[in-house]
Amino acid sequence: MIKSMTGFGKSEVVLPNKKITVEVRTLNSKQLDLSVKLPTIYRPFEFEIRTLAGKMLQRGKADLFISVETTAQRADARINEELFHLYYEQLRDLCLRHGMNAGGNDEIDNALLQCIMRLPDVVSTQEETISEEEHTAVIGAVEQALTHLDEFRLQEGAILIADLLKRVDKIEGYKQEVIPFEKARTETIKERIRENLAQLQVDFDSNRLEQEMIFYLEKLDITEEKVRLTNHCKYFREVAASEENVGRKLGFIAQEMGREINTMGSKANETNIQILVVKMKDELEKIKEQVLNIL
User: Fold this and answer.
1) Closest-CA residue to 138 (of 35, 19, 25)
2) For residues 250 and 291, is the Cβ–Cβ distance under 8 A?
3) Residue 277: pLDDT band by 50, 70, 90 thresholds?
4) Which has fewest Cβ within 10 Å: 60, 63, 98, 141?
């Protein structure tokens, strides 16, 4: 199945005293670029989480976030009184130097208290020991978020490939529209050569002229390019229908399609064919842009 590299997945798991939330966001990238942000207490699980995410994500720029919300009525917290006092003394001196009545104004004391309590390391929780149950819950939440992400990618991939195949059909349609102009182009080129020779008013061998015109027109023939373009379009559909993780492969096929279209344009020598070639190029550029989002 075709998957997009853009996606989002989220999961939550509730334990007796906390709620764990996992979010994964991905964008397109040539390689896997995984960023993991998680609470300090879960750092020992980082390698396991990265390995698990890497297997499922494979490619793309990914951000994985884990957050923990404590739901217990009481938190096992400790106030660092020494640090609190140090912060208070420094802030009080700062207030006095700026003419603020610190220590004698309830409103200012209140503001100081709130400010100090938010400063680093003033309030700390005792080091937690992660139980096996919590470890299993964290890994399970990561797996679930990645599964949701994968489902999102599949949905986006289905939309992407439908658009791509529609554009491939358009390219083949424009290629078919070229056919009526090919014969007219041949006659136009022959007539132009004859008119130019007539203006020169010189004698020439008609048989030799025909041979030279055939040789010249063979160089402008685009039959091979059309056949190869048809084969590339067919292969594009086959790969999209039967393989997984085809983003790079479809990109290579699109490049080959571009070569054939460019050659047709250089050989066209006819206004209507060149217009159709421009339309094919336009669709191909959109294909190339979209293929970059496919896993």
Assistant:
1) 19
2) yes
3) very high
4) 98
